[in-house]
Write a structure and sequence with these properties.
It is an enzyme of class 6 (ligase). The chain is α+β, with helices and mostly antiparallel strands and about 850 residues long. Helices cover about 40% and strands about 25% of the residues. It has 25 helices and 36 strands. Strands 1, 2, 5, 6, 7, 8, 9, 10 and 11 form a 9-stranded mixed sheet that branches. A hairpin with a 3-residue loop joins strand 35 and strand 36. The longest helix has about 35 residues. The termini are far apart. The chain binds adenosine-5'-triphosphate and magnesium ion. The site of adenosine-5'-triphosphate has 15 residues, from strand 5, strand 10, strand 11 and helix 7.
């Protein structure tokens, strides 16, 4: 059975059992501080499990894009080395939200695997939670009895908390689970060792394929377990592993999910998969990682230097590096695999097809820059090696290896590999210590402790009324304290709130909570999944009271101006630059708006002006807002509403229209009632933020006023500085001209001076044992002229040794140059000589064996340096 068919069969099977099919949620998680990437199918249903939200359908089936490269579930180091862990993989799941429980979950799983997919029963094993004393949990007798009625008892294995108690993270929904394992070994091997001994033992052919989790608890911050309001089923089956089991392959990479990629890579590299283990790992790493990278970029996460972006960058670099070291790729190659991703995954995940060109561009740019880094790192390694050689040492210190890793992105195994090839080794223990130090540093910087929610009023759900009101009476449902380096911070949830929580680029509202006895400042509002969390300066002394929740209206109004302007900007950009414009990110606050979009060139002055004109024309038209809530998503799409890749939309959406032929967007933000409120729109900057992504910043209303005033004041100041000339531009031009003339004049003077110094010095050479030696103190305008002088002296006198002690802009500098032949004949080394002499001026330096320089702090040491050199050579 083909992979595609296996996937659709899964969905159809559960549809026939009244499950509703939901598409995968994005792989990049936005509104959850505890999670960067989706690491299991259950993430998008977390709120339903916790009871924060009522599930729309009691039974659901899906295939979820997952990424396990950070946090609690991190498989990165296994990937490629083994044949069944991926970074990105699809998790097939069936779900019950307070509906069926263990019996159906277990019976259906068995039916699907053995009757529909026809996996041989005698190759399957199941596991059951054995209980845990620490958590005061008994063994899962119910699951055991259910399995016992289906499979022989010797195929049931008892599992510990580590394997049979599933948890999403340190806190959150969890529960005992039953896993299904498959034994894919040959008959001969099976005859030798029973499969049950190999389950959960990291055997590459005896692997877990399906995990049936019975969600029953919420793990709290203090480590304790709390029963969930209802019991749920959450199952996750690794699609790639299932395909392998059904296709009877000994590796996930031999299935039709990966084969086309392996073949493409064979063609490109000229190597054959399956010939040599080291190369094979590289093959697997690359065909695995290209999926992870493509899918995350498609969902809006661009490689960068922090957080989620950095995780993606590291995965990409890992792939490039394996290609570079083992498959001989010295030029970008990964990006050329993106058309295959579009071809093989475009049907089920349309986002990778729609954005294929963009994904390729981003990857190519990253590859190019990392290959450059690799190159620089290699050069660094070269000079480290020659330094060690000079000292006759053979071990690269851990600190140096760590520096290479940290600043040049040079992985330890690559440093070790190159070191080994050159007869060196790396102090790996030292490296690990440095790594640990850094981890401790960053942990200390980011550590925070989230307290559990304290319930105040019964949780009846949260109502957001901020589209219609900026003030309301409300009650606190719950609050908690978060402690980190900066101290304590407080969060609370209201039953009814006008506060807009940061999302869709728009910042969260600020304002006040007012009761008859106190007034508490709300400093920010954010979403945590679907919960609206208010960040407050302090906790109320009496949280049970009724509060008046009041949004800072001034800030909200300015923010709204900028949000609506962002919509107008997006449409104007489409008109001016073309339909390929896709939003890549945005920020809207009370001061400015920032809009990132895919586009491959710099915008010209004219294009910018044109965009401004269009937006301002729309502002003057005073177009009224048309806001439609609860529009079925299909209908919204028919209206031509702009949606974002990587955004999670429900079945019903909000549509914001300003002129149905100009701007229709799916948007949850707050907007002006009519466009003239925006006043005036002005772009303040345009630039590139990464491959194929441009960033425009702009301002509106009051900010434009301030901007114009500033510009005007600036011109006035300039006029005054120039003593109010009639033509300011001309006055500046003539100033520049004058400056350039003077610069030239100074350069000529410097040259003349240096020539004078040189002819003076040529007279001072002394011959000693066949070498022309010059040791002298000079005064020069800059470091360049010192270097030039040294070279010229060496070229005119032969064989020469020149030591110059120069005063340059009131700082001491040394230069040593010598005829190359003297390195061998006399054993001299300019670098060593200069380092020796530099001690006299409290400095350091280095260079090549025939030429080296040093700078220092102590000007008075120049004379001593000269004396020392004379003592050494004369
Ligand atoms: P393993 O012990 O093999 O790492 P797990 O216990 O981490 O698996 P679960 O968290 O229970 O796995 O996830 C459910 C299913 O997802 C597993 O049964 C497996 O089939 C699949 N799976 C888990 N991790 C990966 C991965 N890194 N790559 C591919 N499939 C995976
Ligand atoms: Mg795992």
């Amino acid at each position: 059975m083909e992979a595609k068919k296996i996937r659709s069969t899964f969905i159809e099977f559960f549809q026939s059992k009244q499950h509703y099919y939901v598409p995968s949620s994005p792989i990049v998680v936005k509104n959850d501080p505890t999670l960067m990437f989706t690491n299991a199918g259950m993430n998008q249903f977390k709120d339903a499990f916790l009871g924060n939200e009522i599930a729309k359908y009691p039974r659901v089936a899906n295939s979820q894009k997952c990424l396990r490269v950070s946090g609690k579930h991190n498989d990165l180091e296994e990937v490629g080395v083994d044949t069944y862990h991926h970074t990105m993989f699809e998790m097939l799941g069936n779900w019950s939200f307070g509906d069926y429980f263990k019996k159906e979950a277990i019976e259906w799983a068995w039916e699907l695997l053995t009757e529909v997919y026809q996996l041989p029963k005698d190759r399957l094993y199941v596991s059951v939670f054995q209980g845990d004393e620490g958590d005061k949990l008994a063994m899962d007798q119910e699951a055991y009895d259910l399995w016992k009625s289906i499979v022989p008892e010797d195929r049931i294995i008892m599992g510990s908390k580590k394997d049979n108690f599933w948890e999403m993270g340190d806190t959150g929904p969890c529960g005992p689970c039953s896993e299904i394992h498959v034994d894919l070994r040959s008959e001969a091997e099976r005859a030798q060792t029973p499969g049950r001994d190999l389950v959960n033992n990291d055997h590459p052919q005896v692997i877990e394929i399906w995990n049936l989790v019975f969600m029953q608890f919420n793990r709290l911050a203090d480590g304790s377990l709390k029963e969930l309001p209802a019991k749920h089923v959450d199952t996750g089956m690794g699609f790639e592993r299932l395909v392998r089991a059904i296709q009877r392959k000994s590796s996930n990479y031999d299935t039709d999910l990966f084969e086309p990629f392996i073949q493409a890579l064979e063609k490109k590299s000229g190597k054959t998969y399956g010939q040599n283990e080291a190369d094979d790992i590289a093959f697997r790493v690359i065909v695995d990682h290209i999926r992870a990278i493509s899918f995350t970029i498609a969902d809006g996460q661009i490689p960068s230097n922090n957080k989620a972006g950095y995780v993606i960058r590291r995965i990409l670099r890992r792939a490039v590096r394996y290609g570079y070291t083992f498959l001989g790729f010295q030029q970008p190659f990964l990006y050329e695999l993106t058309p295959l991703i579009a071809e093989y995954f475009g049907d089920i995940f349309p986002e990778v097809r729609a954005q294929q060109e963009f994904i390729a561009k981003v990857i190519q740019e990253e590859e190019t820059s990392f290959l450059r880094t690799l190159d620089n790192g290699l050069k660094m390694l070269e000079s480290i090696k020659s330094e060690l050689n000079a000292k006759n040492e053979k071990v690269i210190p851990g600190k140096t290896a760590f520096e290479l890793y940290d600043t040049y992105g040079f992985p330890l195994d690559l440093t070790s590999l190159i070191a080994r090839e050159n007869g060196f080794s790396v102090d790996e223990k030292g490296f690990a210590e440095e790594m640990e130090k850094q981890k401790t540093r960053s942990r200390a910087a980011s550590e925070s402790e989230t307290g559990d929610w304290v319930l105040v009023h019964e949780d009846t759900g949260v109502e957001f009324i901020g589209y219609d009101f900026t003030e309301t009476h409300s009650h606190i449902i719950k609050y908690r304290t978060i402690t980190d380096k900066k101290g304590d911070r407080y969060q609370l949830v209201l039953d009814k709130t006008p506060f807009y929580a940061e999302s869709g680029g728009q910042v969260g509202d600020t304002g006040w909570l007012v009761s008859d006895s106190e007034k508490i400042r709300v400093i920010d509002t954010k979403k945590e999944n679907d919960l609206i969390v208010h960040f407050v300066e302090k906790l109320p002394t009496n949280p049970e009271k009724r509060f008046s929740a009041e949004v800072d209206r001034e800030k909200r109004t300015l923010t709204m101006n900028n949000h609506t302007a962002t919509h107008l900007l997006q449409s104007a950009l489409r008109e001016v630059l073309g339909d390929h414009i896709q939003q890549r990110g945005s920020l809207v606050n009370e001061n400015l708006l920032r809009f990132d979009f895919s586009h491959f060139g710099k915008m010209s002055e004219e294009e910018i002006a044109r965009v401004e004109e269009i937006v301002n024309a729309k502002v003057r038209e005073n177009i009224p807002l048309v806001e439609q809530r609860n529009v079925p998503i299909e209908e919204a799409k028919k209206m031509g509403a702009t949606a974002l890749f990587g955004e999670k939309y429900g079945d019903f959406v909000r549509v914001i229209t300003f002129d149905k032929d100009f701007s229709v967007e799916l948007c949850g933000g707050t907007h002006v009632p009519a466009t003239s409120q925006i006043g005036l729109f002005k772009i303040t900057s345009e630039g590139s933020i990464s491959a194929g992504v441009r960033r425009v910043e702009a301002i509106t209303s009051k900010a434009v006023e301030a901007y114009l005033r500033e510009q005007e004041a600036l011109v006035k100041e300039i006029q005054e500085l120039l003593k109010n000339p009639r033509d300011v531009k001309k006055a500046i031009e003539s100033l520049i001209q004058e400056r350039n003339d003077l610069k030239k004049e100074i350069e000529t003077l410097h040259l003349e001076k240096a020539a004078g110094v040189k002819s003076e010095l040529l007279k001072q050479f002394v011959e000693k044992e066949g070498v022309q030696i010059l040791i002298s103190q000079v005064e020069l305008p800059n470091a360049d002229s010192l270097k030039k002088l040294a070279y010229e002296l060496k070229n005119e006198v032969s064989p020469a040794l020149v030591v110059l002690a120069a005063k340059i802009e009131d700082k001491p500098q040394l230069a040593v140059i010598l005829e190359e032949s003297l390195i061998a004949s006399k054993g001299w080394n300019a670098g060593q000589i200069v380092r020796d002499l530099a001690r006299e001026i409290q400095g350091g330096g280095g260079g090549q064996p025939f030429f080296a320089t040093a700078g220092g702090k102590d000007l008075s040491g120049l004379e001593k340096a000269v004396a020392k050199a004379k003592a050494m050579f004369l």
